[in-house]
Amino acid sequence: MNMEELATFRNEERVMLVETVKRLQGLVAEVLNPEDFHKIKDILFRAVETEHLRRDKFGLNPILFDLQTAVITAEEVGLNRASIISIMLHNCVSVGVIGIEEVKKEFGEDVAHIIRGILRVNELYAKNPSIETENFRDLLLSFAEDMRVIFIIIADRVNLMRQIKDRGTDEERRRVATEAAHLYAPLAHKLGLYLIKRELEDLSLKYLEPDVFYMIKEKLSATRAARDLYIARFIAPIEEKLKETGLQFHIKGRTKSIHSIWQKMLKQKCQFEGIYDLFAIRIILDSALEKEKQDCWQVFSIVTDMYRPNPKRLRDWLSVPKSNGYESLHITVMGPEGKWVEIQIRTERMDEIAERGLAAHWRYKGVKDSGTKLEDWLQDIRSALEHHEVESDENLMDRFKVDLYSDEVFVFTPKGDLFKLPKGATVLDFAFQIHTNVGAHCTGGKVNGKNVHIGTKLQSGDQVEILTSQKQLPKRDWLNIAITPRARAKIRQSLTEQEMQVSTFAKEALERKFKNKKIEPEESLMMRLIKRMGYKHVTEFYKAIAEEVLDVNTVIEQYQELQERDANPNAFSTEQRSAGNYVAPVQDDHAQGNADVLVLDNNLKGVDYSLAKCCNPIYGDDVFGFVTVNRGIKVHRKDCPNAQLLRERMGYRVLRARWAGKGSKQYPVTLHVVGHDDIGIVSNITSVLNKEKNVMMRGLSIQTSEDGLFSGQLTVMIDDQNQLTQLIKKLSAVKGVKNIVR
Hints:
This protein is of the alpha+beta class. It is built from 26 helices and 20 strands. The strands form 5 sheets. Strands 1, 2, 3, 4, 5 and 6 form a 6-stranded mixed sheet that branches. A 5-stranded mixed sheet has the order 12-16-14-15-13. The chain has a 4-stranded antiparallel sheet with strand order 18-19-17-20, with helices on one face. The relative contact order is 0.05.
């Protein structure tokens, strides 16, 4: 693959190009055949000749840069044919040198699939997102669709970070370094690419905090000789003892990364000299798979016999590996000169997985674990790798094509801020997600620059601008458009406020008419009139007035008729007799009006139900529904004596329930009354009931006891729970009543 003739290559780049190509051919000779190289060379020549490819803002040659990324991907990550070809061709596809269908024909669907993922990810960056957010990581994974795309973009960033020391502006370097620290290093850590994660963190610190980086680097260099001497003294007796056991092993000491030392300095609020655990010693065993744990614990026993361990610093990732497949046994012991030394015990297999992450699983079996979506994804990858012996590489990689966030969409604002919404969310949902006022005044939106309706469903990666007007207000049909709980709640709240405002204006207009006719309306009489005229809710009544469906003069005329009818109410008479064995006449429960609206299981209205006799729920009580075998749905109070039993034994038949709107009928409620045995108390109780216009007494039964007290049952018809609470307060204040409860 001779590219020395490429005119756009500088002399030093031509030399690097030849070296990089040879190195890449050596790495992937087994998976990339000569025909692949020949086709790729022709496409790259075509790109150069047509001058489609341009250097980036750091002045890097795109062909050379991609070849270097391919080397990193093959050598340090461990991916093969489809990934390598995708890296070298994705730029050619993006500028139109070759079409995705031609790629598919020449190199296969797998290569085309990865290139599509890379291009989709590049589209995200074109929108200048705020990459520091957790949402962006989720969106990135969602867009990539394939594990290999994630590995490739991490390798790409490592390559970039290695080359920008003297390139570009300080601001450009800092931006790249910030992205590496906040996005790529955490991703590499999640994937178990510890060497890459360590390098990204160190390079980020180098560009973001150069003074700190070089200070720590110089101090590490200055103390290296003493550190190496100490390590040699520490491991000498361990090596001797391990050789006696016949174990195959090697030991190495590794200095902590500059970034991790800086983090310790910040956390412990100390200078470099105050950090004692600057290095870790790694004992790596060459053990058979079935003897790994046994050998590791044998080494643990030998080391802790020589040096005193700190039990609080034992980390056993042999028994329960980390979610990314990391396995190792960590102990901290007291070494010479009273220094704490961390020792990591692992096998060759474990060490390669620890250094190279999931890529090392090409040769080793994975480890199962569980966790969040990303960890579940990694678990699926490991499960697939367990079957590597019986699957081809192509079939194996097909299983890495994942749909991590199929139930979510991620959308951008024009400024690059990222929001996460449930799948199916609309422009209206997004508007309310930004701010309540933005949602309330939303008239539409622009999705990727095109004007759209408020009901347009959003897709991951869309850039959405909300259009507003101060004249716009939420409408009832918006509840059919919005799907997020936040948006729906805000819409309902606004509709209620609008209705209240209309009601207020109509009420004021009605009051002015009453005043003109020199009538002082009574609220209780007014409420009775509203129900009599067929309105379930006060707001509906005033809305009818505001919309001129109901004439104000008609209302006043009917009010006067009702007022005249109530001018001479029937007085309640009592005889002077003992309260004992008193039974008031029971009134018939009839003409209770239309049933109140009860919403079952969040959104079911109009379902037939009946009120349970065991607890007699009324409007306003906290209730739940229970599906009976042959008597339909029974509604119980949540504090019903039978509630706990029903939930425990037949929870699957319990429905959530709540009252909607305003109570429109009366309910029977039985109150237990205890008081002094005096006939006057009956008169006092009934007197209170008579004064309550909307309360009807159905019955009063009293029995006396020998201690001068009576207990009785008082049954009344009540509108709702609030009215009942007020009635109980008034009856409790009656002279002679000691206690009254429902």
